[in-house]
Each structure stands twice: as C-alpha cells, then as structure tokens.
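Researcher: Good morning. I'm working through a list of sequences from a screen, and I'd like to move beyond sequence-only analysis. For each chain I'm collecting a predicted structure so we can compare shapes side by side. This is the next one on the list. No need for commentary yet; just the structure.
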Amino acid sequence: MMRQSTLSALAMRPIKLTWRLTLIALLGLTGGCLYRMEIQQGNVLNKDLVAQLEPGMTRSQVLFLLGTPQLPNGFNADRWDYYYYWKPYNSNRAFSERLTVWFKDDKVDRFDGDAAPKPKTAPATTPPG
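Model: Good morning. Structure tokens for this chain:
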C-alpha cells in the first residue's frame, strides 16, 4: 500500500510544479500593468496670470495673482519662489517651471525664471507727417 501512495505523490509533482510556474509567470506578466500615478507638485503657473505681473505691484497683489509661494525663503525675505513640476503617468518625461519674484521696499522689483513674463514693450507709434 505504501508503494502506491509514493507513486501517486511522485506523479503529482510535475502537475504542482507546472501550476507554480504558471502562477509565477502570470504574476510576472502583470508587473508591467501596474498603475503609475501622475505627479504634480508646486504652484500651477497660469501664463495669463503670470503675464499680469508688473514691477511696482505690492506683495498682496502678487499673492492674489499667483498664490502663496512654494517655500518661504528663510534667507531672503524679498524673494518669493514659485515652482511647478508635472510628470504624466504615461510618460518618462517631466515638465517643470520656475518663477522668482524679487521685492524691493515691499514692491515687485523684478522677476526671473523660465516662466517669467516677457517684458512689455510700448506699441510702436509712427511720427506724424
């Protein structure tokens, strides 16, 4: 009797091994189907609002337009930094923008960064004549 149970146990080994290998293969294939979350950090820098920035604006006007800066600058109270970072879930490429607003006497002195508005130029006038 003992001999038959040993033989049937040996016969079941390949079936158990096949099921285990199939399960491992299925788990390996689903690894590429994991959900990847979209990452957004910082302040969204709306180009229309950023274009309204002008030298001479007060801090409260800048707060109204752009919101609170990303991080308070402990070393320079006259500098506000706005950062925006976005990485879509289906891409390996990330997008980032930076805007720094400099104040002098609590008014906007200048701004720089890749999201800074272009300098406004006066419309060209043609001389009479």
